[in-house]
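Chapter review: from sequence to fold.
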Amino acid sequence: MIETAPGFGFNAYKAGSGKSKAAKAVGWLGGEEPIESPWSSEAEEQRKRLMSSLMEGPSAILLDNITGRMNSDTLCAILTSSRFKDRRLGTSDEVSAPTRVLILATGNNLGLVGDLSRRVLLSTIDHGVESPERLAFPFDPVQRVRERWLYYRAAALTVLCGFVAAGQPRKGEGTMGSYEQWDTLIRQCVVWLRDQELAPFGLADPADAIAQNYEADPETQKLEALLENWFACFGSEPKRCAELAATEAGQHQDDPGNVRPYGALMDTLREIAGEPEKINMRKLGRWIERNAGRIISGKRVVEHGKRSGTKIWRVECVGDHAG
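The token string follows.
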């Protein structure tokens, strides 16, 4: 019904919390068992497995029990396009498959990296007990939805009909980029239900999950630390990557009182591009290029020009932080 929609992640702090049951119950709203696709940390394996799953034409794909942080250029492309093209497994022929499929993911302490932070809405199941696997519940959610999926689909469509009849009011601020159709029909409906207090449980704006994802994204955290410490040490003074990496050696000469956070800046540089005994200049430069222009807390790094063929960068304050 909708060309593109975000994926949905189910996180928990311990195995046995019910995240797979929750995902499968949601997947069964499509009228069939969601296809389970094993997750791999290797990009090539991700591409092959996701393409293979899409070729089956399922209503839902479940990426179950992901370990660590989730990062995938292939999944990013699938979640923001109506079709995905790739080579047929074992041949050089290219094939394409529609991506109108519900993407579900589960994992313990599941985290998102980079662009997936705005493409997957993450929820957390926390029972607040040490052994959630021992909890008893009055029914099995997967079995219940499997037996009554048409009833639940009719109920969901009834809610949407009420939202349309109310004139599809836009209560949620802004728009979720790449998901304008989904934003207009689904996100705004959820916010409308919340504001009208029509649900017998608490609701929040789904877009809030994106801000939370970015706050937890390690790349965002690194960039925020770099901008803050770089500006605290040098202000908007242009610097080459090599000059940043030389900070530690000259910190006491430049600032005997050690008021500026040179040590914190070096810790951030090591986290971004550190090697056993040095900062990798090429890796640092590529990382800065990849994140240039992105604004966090009113600051961003921008290119200032070149010196002897090497790019020079500076931190710029924008918006209310400028000047």
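Two observations follow directly from the output. DSSP finds eleven helices and eleven strands in the chain. The radius of gyration is 24 Å.
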